[in-house]
Specification:
Rossmann fold, alpha/beta, globular, 356 residues, 2 domains, 56% helix, single chain, 7 strands, 13 helices
């Protein structure tokens, strides 16, 4: 289930794999090189630290069962270089509470127990890679907002500070002319004409949203369009007059997961993308239940997918000046239907430590 969305999430990420068994680079039972942009293998901690100081890696993967040094010290050395570095640890010592507590205190991002299972590996990798992407996206947009804030301050200072205006170099000196008053009621005039000051709303509309839609990847537009066509076709096959088909319902959930994963790449749609991905995951996992209660869920799921069509037309298609308008509605609908499929259960041990 995680294979396709892992490829989409990890395709641009790099990995530093610390594994002393260099003869076998098929780590964790499956070759991960098809998922990531690059995997660099090192045999020991010294080589890993030397390489880490000169290059940037999105993810560090460590097999601590073959690690000869002090794993806690090694992780601390990595975090001294980058406190937010994502680190995944692999070990068969999943029942060792002392080890797990030390790794928790070292703030690792994920733990993969041995013996490996494909679903377990891909699930941990997807969640950690998703966190890495979200952090990179956040830093990217923080940088954009900081640049816009500096530009807005510069505009404000030029308009409000006469001393700064006087200090600007004068390229052309025009003779002073008496102001022409066209309207008797207009008793206000400017001796030093200036450009109109942009308000915060104008800056937000003309700059932030315009720049934002320029960043929307055309490939993602086409991908979302194709996914919606696939979703519509799958709904027709999943819910027929002859009854519901669990196999197509599972495919429908997978298509929704891919749709949500694309939206998660963008700041304004990240929350909505997460909700759609989780919604698709529930539909895929509970396809049999949805099929058995198709008289309830057919109209709900179809209506939800129609909302996605409207979202694409009104937001991505026309570059809406309020791109988050649909978010809350779609998120609420996804959560409502998801809770109807799998009612939430309140457990007594919600605060227990959970390793991925």
């Amino acid at each position: 289930m995680y294979t396709k969305i892992l490829k989409e999430t990890a395709s641009q990420l790099t990995v530093l794999a610390v594994k002393e068994d260099m003869e076998n680079r098929v780590i964790m039972g499956d070759n991960l090189e098809c998922f990531f942009r690059q995997i660099t293998y090192v045999a020991n901690a010294e080589e890993a630290l030397y390489l880490y100081r000169s290059e940037k890696f999105d993810l560090v993967l460590i097999d601590i069962d073959t690690f000869s040094g002090d794993i806690n010290r090694f992780i601390s050395d990595i975090h001294r270089q980058d406190i937010f570095q994502a680190i995944i640890v692999c070990s068969e010592r999943k029942d060792d509470p002392v080890l797990l507590m030390r790794l928790l205190n070292e703030r690792i991002s994920g733990f993969i127990p041995k013996p490996y299972t494909q679903s377990g590996i891909y699930e941990v990798l997807f969640k950690v890679c998703e966190q890495v992407q979200e952090r990179q996206l956040l830093l990217h947009y923080l940088n954009i907002l900081e640049n816009q804030h500096e530009a807005a301050l510069e505009v404000s200072c030029r308009s409000e500070c006469p001393m700064k205006a006087e200090l600007q170099p004068i390229k052309v000196i025009q003779p002073i002319q008496a102001p022409q008053v066209e309207d008797e009621d207009d008793d206000m005039f400017e001796f030093f004409p200036t450009q109109p000051v942009q308000t915060a709303a104008t800056i937000e509309h003309d700059s932030m949203y315009q720049d934002y839609f320029n960043l929307l990847d055309s490939d993602d537009r086409e991908d979302l369009h194709d996914l919606l066509i696939d979703i519509d076709t799958t709904i027709i096959n999943a819910f027929t007059d002859m009854g519901a088909n669990a196999e197509y319902i599972e495919k429908l959930g997978a298509s929704l997961m891919r749709y949500g994963n694309v939206l998660m790449h963008y700041q304004f749609f990240c929350d909505m993308g997460t909700a759609i991905l989780e919604f698709g995951k529930v539909i895929s996992n509970e396809s049999e239940k949805v099929a058995m209660q198709s008289e309830i869920f057919h109209s709900l799921i179809s209506g939800f997918c129609s909302g996605l069509q409207t979202f694409m037309v009104e937001v991505w298609g026309q570059e809406s000046d309020k791109p988050k308008f649909f978010n809350d509605s779609i998120i609420n609908d996804a959560e409502l239907i998801k809770d109807m499929i799998v009612p939430p259960v309140v457990e007594d041990h919600e605060d227990d430590l959970v390793f991925f």
